[in-house]
Amino acid sequence: SMIALNTQLLLEKDIQCSAITTTYQTELYEITPKIIEQGQKEGSIVEGNSLKLADYYWGVIYLYALKRLFTSHYEMIDLNDLKRILYK
Length: 88
Description:
Blueprint: H1 2-13, H2 27-42, H3 50-70, H4 79-86
Helix pairs in contact: 1-3, 2-3
C-alpha cells in the first residue's frame, strides 16, 4: 500500500502528471533501472529497456497494492511471481 500511496502523491504534485517530473525522479525509479542493468550484465535479468522493465515491475506491484487497498478477497503475489517479471 505504500507503493500505491507514494505513486498517488507523486502524481498529485504535478497537475500534468508528467512522468519525467514525477515518477522517474523518485528513488525507486532511479535505482531499479540500475539494478536491472547490472543484472542484465551478469546474465540473470531478461534483456530489454531497463526503464520499461522497471515500469513493468513496479506496475505489477502497484496493481496488487491497489487490489489490497480496495478488495477484500484477492490472491496476493509472492516472491516467485515477482521473480518471473525480470529473472531469466
